[in-house]
Sequence to fold (57 residues):
Amino acid sequence: MQKYQDLHTLLDKSPAAKSFFNTLPDYVRESICQRADHVNSMASLKDYAQNLLRGDG
Fold:
């Protein structure tokens, strides 16, 4: 699994991650952006998004 420096690099380098991120509700994207340094792979992006969507934030 490819890991990147942070969320911004992940979204810049991975079209699949950017596409997934863009489908998320605004509040989920905002929360993920607040933790950008901790989201560095597609797996971490999906895990964090699923937690937020379940309300585990």
Q: What stands out?
A: The chain has one domain: 7-54. The helical segments are 7-13, 15-23, 26-34, 42-54. The first helix runs from residue 7 to 13.
